[in-house]
C-alpha cells in the first residue's frame, strides 16, 4: 500500500503541523507541613476538586460548529486488497483483522462551493495513526516519514492536519488515508472544515483526553508528596511509605499518557510506561503485605524473583526493538502478580467497619477493572475510540486508602502528643538549669572583660614604644614578632569576648535613630592605617541619612566587615557604600579580593572558620569576625546578603531601616568626620592630660605619648584632674584622655564638666566596657571613644584630628 519512496523521504518535511490548544499551568503552593490532619482534609476535598476541573473544562472548552463529519469510507487492507464499504469509527480487530499492519481508507465528500481564498481548512481525527500518508484529490498533503522506529511505535492518536484550501473544489472531493499501525489499529470518524470552526472541538478533545487527566494526576502526585512528608516523620509506618510511592509513580505515569512528544522520545516513553507498570505492581504487592500484616513468604519471593527479570527484560527488548512482543508476554504475568495483592487488600478491608469497608471494596474493584480494561485497550480488543481508564480511576481510588491510612496516623499522633507533653516538661526543667549556668557565664564575662583588656592595651603600647627606641636590627625583628603576637592576642581576646557576649539572648536590644555619617567617618580613621599598610585604597562614600539600630552592635558589624575585607584583599580597593532601597538603606562593603566559592558562603559565618588558611596564620585574623557579624545582625533583626564568586571579589550588604532625623539632631550642625588629609601619622607636639586608674596602662600611655613628643600629665582619678584644672587666663591642655570606669567620678562626668567650661581642649574617652547599654550612653556624647585594646596607630590617628568629631570604638581585624 505504501510507495517505496515513502520510507526515503525526510521526516522533517513530512511532519504535519499541529494546533496545540492553550492550557492552564499547574500551580503548587507550599503551605508547610501540617501532619495527617491536612491529609484527611485533602481526602475530603478531592472529589470537589475533580468536579470543579470537569466543569471548568466544559465551560472553557465548548465545542465549535464543525462542518463536515465523514462516517463512511472504502477500506482495503494489505491482507484483503479489495475495497469494502465500512462505517467509522472502525476497529480492525473487531472485523477479524490483525490489530497491526497497513490499511487504506478512501472517503468522499461534496462541497457546494470552493473555500474563499486564504481561508485555512483542517482535518481533525480523534484516532489516526502517527504513521500516515494523506492525499486530497490526488495530491499528497501530509506524509509522515516511514522508518523502523516509527513503525514500532505507530498507534492511534489525536490528530490535527491543515489542508491546502486551494486543492478543495466545488462538488465531489476525495480524501485518501494510507495508515500503518503497530497496535490498536483503526480510525475514528473525521471532521473537515474551516480551521477556525474545527479548533474549539479539537481543544475540547485535547482537554477531555489529555489535559484534564494530566491535571488530576498532577494533583494526585502532589497529594502523594504530602503523604511522603508524613511518612518521613514516621518511617516505621512502612505501609504508608509504600502507598505514597505507589501513588506518586502511577500519577506520574498517568500524567504523560496524553503528551505529544517528538519521535525520538517515543521509544523511551514506551519503555517508561512498561517499567512504571512493572514497578507499580511490585509496590502494590509490598504495600498489600505490609498493610495486611501477613507474611506470605511465597508471594514475597514471587515479587522478589520476578522484579529484575521483568525490568531488565523490558530494557533489553526495547533496545532490540521487540518491546511489543515482550509486553504481550510480560503483562499477563504482571496482572497475575497483582491479583494476590488485591486479595490481601480486600481481606484487610473487611476488617474495617462502616462506610470505609464499602469504599475500600469499591476502590479495589475499580482498580482491578481499570487494569483489565487498559490491557484490553492496549491489545486492540476494544473499540479504537476507548481511552485508557487508569488515569481517571487511580486518583479516585486512592482517596479511600489515603483516608484510612491518615486516620490511623492521627490516632498514633495523639499518643505521641501525650508523650511529647511529658517530655517537654522535663525539657523545661533542664532548660531552666542551663539558663542559670548561662547567666553565671555572662556575669563572669562582664567582670573579666574590663580586667583583661587593660593589660593587653598596655602590652601593645609598650612593645610599640620599645621598637621605636631601639636601632639594633635583631632586637627590632624580635619586637616586630612580639608586636604581631600582641595584635593576635588583641584580636582573639576581642573576638572571644564579643562572640560570647552576643550569645546572651536574654538582653533586649534597644534601637535608636542613628546618623550613619559618623560611622562612615570612623572607618577612615580606624581602618585607614591597616589599609595603607597593605597597599589598598579604602574609599567611603558620604551618606547623610539616618537609620534605626543599636550603635555599638552596628559599629561591631561594620568594623568586622571592613577589617575582614582588608585582611583578605591583597591588591585593589575596599569600598563602603550606602544606597537607599525604598524604606531601607543598603550598607555595602565591597572588596576586590579572591572571592568566596558558593559552597563556602554559609560556612564562613561559623566561629573559627577561615578559608585558604590551613596553617591558621595570624595574618588572616582569628576567624571570629564574620561569626560576630552574623550574631550581631541576628540580635538587631537586620538582614545580611552576600554576593561573591571566585576571582571577582565579595560584596556584603546589610539592610537597615531608614528613619527620620530627631528634631534636635536636625537643627544641630553635623560634626565633621576625618578626611583623607587627616590620615597622616605626623602629629605636632601637644599638651595631654591623662586620667587612668590602671598603673601599668597609665605608664604605657604616658611613655608612648612622650615618645611622640607630647607633654603628658597623668592622674589616677577624675577628682585629682579636676582639682588641678587651670583657671583663666592659664592655658588649658590641648587634649584630655579619660578612662570611662574610674573610682569615684566617672570619666564621662569629668568630660562633661570640662566641656561645660567652653574651653579649647579636645576630649576623648577610653573604655573597656562592651555592654550595649553603656555603649549607647557613650555614643550619645559629643567626644570620641577609644575601645580598649587599641593600637598606637589608632591613638595617633585620634590625636591628629583638629575637631572633636566622635570616633567609633576601635576593633582590630578579625
Automatic annotation (TrEMBL):
Pfam families xrefs: HATPase_c (PF02518), HisKA (PF00512), Response_reg (PF00072)
Keyword Transmembrane (UniProt): yes
UniProt entry keywords in alphabetical sequence: Coiled coil, Kinase, Membrane, Phosphoprotein, Transferase, Transmembrane, Transmembrane helix
EC annotation from Swiss-Prot or TrEMBL: 2.7.13.3
Domain Response regulatory: start-end pairs: 687-803
InterPro entries assigned to the protein according to its UniProt record, in alphabetical order: CheY-like_superfamily, HATPase_C_sf, HATPase_dom, His_kinase_dom, HisK_dim/P_dom, HisK_dim/P_sf, Sig_transdc_His_kin-like_C, Sig_transdc_resp-reg_receiver
A GO term, aspect molecular function: histidine phosphotransfer kinase activity
Any single Gene Ontology cellular-component annotation: plasma membrane
Coiled-coil portions: 406-433
Modified residues (4-aspartylphosphate): 739
PANTHER family in the record: HISTIDINE KINASE, TWO-COMPONENT HISTIDINE PROTEIN KINASE
Protein known as: histidine kinase
Species this protein is from: Kinneretia aquatilis
Lineage: Bacteria, Pseudomonadati, Pseudomonadota, Betaproteobacteria, Burkholderiales
Amino acid at each position: 500500500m505504501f510507495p517505496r519512496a515513502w520510507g526515503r523521504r525526510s521526516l522533517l518535511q513530512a511532519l504535519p503541523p499541529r494546533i496545540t490548544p492553550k492550557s492552564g499551568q499547574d500551580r503548587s503552593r507550599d503551605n508547610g507541613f501540617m501532619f495527617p490532619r491536612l491529609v484527611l482534609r485533602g481526602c475530603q476535598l478531592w472529589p470537589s476538586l475533580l468536579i470543579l476541573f470537569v466543569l471548568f473544562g466544559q465551560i472553557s472548552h465548548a465545542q465549535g460548529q464543525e462542518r463536515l463529519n465523514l462516517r463512511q469510507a472504502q477500506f482495503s487492507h494489505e491482507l484483503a486488497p479489495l475495497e469494502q464499504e465500512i462505517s467509522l469509527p472502525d476497529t480492525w480487530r473487531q472485523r477479524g483483522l490483525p490489530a497491526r499492519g497497513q490499511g487504506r481508507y478512501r472517503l468522499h465528500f461534496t462541497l457546494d462551493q470552493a473555500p474563499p481564498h486564504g481561508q485555512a481548512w483542517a482535518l481533525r481525527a480523534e484516532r489516526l495513526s502517527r504513521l500516515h500518508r494523506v492525499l486530497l484529490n490526488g495530491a499528497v498533503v501530509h506524509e509522515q516519514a516511514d522508518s523502523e522506529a516509527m513503525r514500532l511505535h505507530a498507534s492511534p492518536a489525536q490528530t490535527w492536519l491543515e489542508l491546502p484550501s486551494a486543492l478543495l473544489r466545488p462538488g465531489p472531493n476525495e480524501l485518501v488515508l494510507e495508515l500503518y499501525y503497530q497496535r490498536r489499529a483503526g480510525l475514528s470518524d473525521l471532521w473537515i472544515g474551516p480551521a477556525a470552526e474545527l479548533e474549539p472541538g479539537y481543544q475540547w478533545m485535547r482537554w477531555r483526553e489529555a489535559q484534564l487527566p494530566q491535571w488530576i494526576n498532577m494533583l494526585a502526585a502532589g497529594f502523594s508528596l504530602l503523604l511522603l512528608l508524613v511518612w518521613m516523620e514516621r518511617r516505621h509506618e512502612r505501609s504508608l511509605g509504600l502507598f505514597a510511592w505507589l501513588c506518586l509513580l502511577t500519577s506520574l505515569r498517568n500524567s504523560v499518557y496524553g503528551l505529544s512528544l517528538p519521535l525520538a522520545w517515543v521509544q523511551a516513553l514506551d519503555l517508561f510506561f512498561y517499567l512504571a507498570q512493572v514497578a507499580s505492581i511490585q509496590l502494590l504487592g509490598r504495600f498489600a503485605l505490609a498493610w495486611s500484616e501477613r507474611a506470605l513468604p511465597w508471594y514475597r519471593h514471587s515479587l522478589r524473583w520476578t522484579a529484575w527479570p521483568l525490568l531488565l527484560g523490558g530494557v533489553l527488548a526495547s533496545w532490540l526493538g521487540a518491546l511489543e512482543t515482550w509486553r504481550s508476554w510480560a503483562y499477563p504475568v504482571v496482572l497475575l502478580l497483582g491479583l494476590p495483592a488485591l486479595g490481601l487488600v480486600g481481606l484487610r478491608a473487611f476488617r474495617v467497619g462502616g462506610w470505609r469497608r464499602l469504599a475500600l471494596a469499591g476502590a479495589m474493584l475499580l482498580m482491578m477493572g481499570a487494569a483489565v480494561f487498559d490491557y484490553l485497550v492496549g491489545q486492540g480488543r476494544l473499540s479504537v475510540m476507548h481511552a485508557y481508564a487508569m488515569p481517571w480511576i487511580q486518583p479516585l481510588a486512592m482517596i479511600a486508602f489515603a483516608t484510612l491510612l491518615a486516620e490511623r496516623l492521627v490516632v498514633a499522633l495523639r499518643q505521641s502528643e501525650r508523650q511529647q507533653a511529658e517530655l517537654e516538661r522535663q525539657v523545661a526543667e533542664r532548660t531552666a538549669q542551663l539558663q542559670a549556668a548561662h547567666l553565671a557565664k555572662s556575669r563572669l564575662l562582664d567582670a573579666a572583660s574590663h580586667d583583661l583588656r587593660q593589660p593587653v592595651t598596655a602590652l601593645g603600647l609598650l612593645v610599640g614604644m620599645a621598637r621605636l627606641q631601639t636601632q639594633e636590627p635583631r632586637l627590632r625583628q624580635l619586637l616586630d614578632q612580639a608586636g604581631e603576637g600582641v595584635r593576635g592576642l588583641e584580636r582573639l581576646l576581642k573576638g572571644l569576648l564579643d562572640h560570647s557576649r552576643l550569645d546572651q539572648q536574654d538582653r533586649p536590644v534597644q534601637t535608636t535613630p542613628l546618623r550613619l555619617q559618623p560611622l562612615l567617618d570612623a572607618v577612615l580613621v580606624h581602618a585607614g592605617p591597616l589599609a595603607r599598610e597593605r597597599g589598598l585604597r579604602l574609599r567611603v562614600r558620604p551618606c547623610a541619612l539616618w537609620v534605626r539600630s543599636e550603635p555599638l552592635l552596628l559599629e561591631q558589624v561594620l568594623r568586622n566587615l571592613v577589617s575582614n575585607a582588608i585582611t583578605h584583599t591583597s591588591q585593589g580597593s575596599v569600598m563602603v557604600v550606602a544606597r537607599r532601597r525604598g524604606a531601607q538603606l543598603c550598607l555595602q562593603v565591597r572588596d576586590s579580593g579572591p572571592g568566596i566559592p558558593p559552597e563556602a558562603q554559609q560556612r564562613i559565618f561559623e566561629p573559627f572558620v577561615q578559608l585558604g588558611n590551613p596553617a591558621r596564620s595570624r595574618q588572616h585574623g582569628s576567624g571570629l569576625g564574620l561569626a560576630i557579624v552574623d550574631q550581631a545582625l541576628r540580635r538587631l533583626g537586620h538582614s545580611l546578603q552576600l554576593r561573591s564568586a571566585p576571582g571577582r571579589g565579595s560584596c556584603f550588604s546589610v539592610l537597615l531601616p531608614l528613619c527620620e532625623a530627631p528634631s534636635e539632631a536636625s537643627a544641630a550642625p553635623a560634626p565633621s568626620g576625618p578626611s583623607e588629609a587627616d590620615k597622616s601619622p605626623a602629629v605636632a607636639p601637644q599638651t595631654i592630660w591623662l586620667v587612668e586608674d590602671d598603673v601599668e596602662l597609665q605608664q604605657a600611655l604616658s611613655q608612648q605619648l612622650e615618645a611622640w613628643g607630647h607633654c603628658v600629665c597623668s592622674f589616677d582619678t577624675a577628682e585629682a584632674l579636676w582639682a588641678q584644672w587651670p583657671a583663666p587666663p592659664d592655658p588649658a591642655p590641648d587634649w584630655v584622655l579619660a578612662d570611662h570606669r574610674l573610682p569615684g567620678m566617672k570619666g564621662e562626668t569629668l568630660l562633661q564638666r570640662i566641656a561645660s567650661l567652653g574651653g579649647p581642649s579636645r576630649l576623648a574617652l577610653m573604655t573597656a566596657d562592651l555592654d550595649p547599654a553603656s555603649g549607647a550612653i557613650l555614643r550619645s556624647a559629643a567626644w570620641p571613644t577609644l575601645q580598649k585594646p587599641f593600637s598606637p596607630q589608632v591613638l595617633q590617628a585620634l590625636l591628629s584630628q583638629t575637631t572633636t568629631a566622635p570616633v567609633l570604638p576601635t576593633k582590630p581585624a578579625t
